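Dear support,

I submitted the protein below through the web form. The confirmation email said the job was done, but the results page showed an empty box. After a refresh the structure appeared. I'm attaching both so you can tell me whether what I see now is the final result or a partial one.
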Amino acid sequence: MKRAGKFVVGAAITTAIAVFGAFQIVSAPSNETIPPPQPDAQNGPCSFVWAYKEAPELTTFVDNAVKALNPESVGRAEYYGEDCIYADGTSTFSAMQTDFYIRLPVEDLNEEEDFGNWVSQVMQIVAQIPREELPGNYGFVEFRFEKTEAEHITFRVPIQQYIDEAQGKTGVELLQMFYTPPQ
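What the results page shows now:
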């Protein structure tokens, strides 16, 4: 990953914020983000099953934002929660958290300073999404730096922990807060 100048980073973040402001993120359909209904005569009891649901609008936003930083990157978002499945086969989904997945192809898996700077740039974008646009609790951002399918570094940054403890950190310092190399 090549080092980007301060101007390019600032321009990319400004572009991401502008895109976000112009692109209204819409949460999952309302029947998918409300708490499951209590059993009643019409619906009857339901069984809860852990579930993931795509977040297409949020995926579009985060993918465009990370591509503004590096066109080869890929970003997506999804909701994690529970499906309440009724006897008639219908279900409702309740989001417990919103998670993000970011993949960046790299040539060298030893560029810790660059990786930490990338994490910082992406986390700044995620942290600026209005809280009301993220159903459920803050989840995580999973980063995958991929040289090949078999050679990669993957780790997760809990969003709330980043907000509470890591804002303003960059480079190796930030990377080492969340990634421990295998021994």
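Response: this is the final, complete result; the empty box was a page-load delay. Residues 6-178 form one domain.
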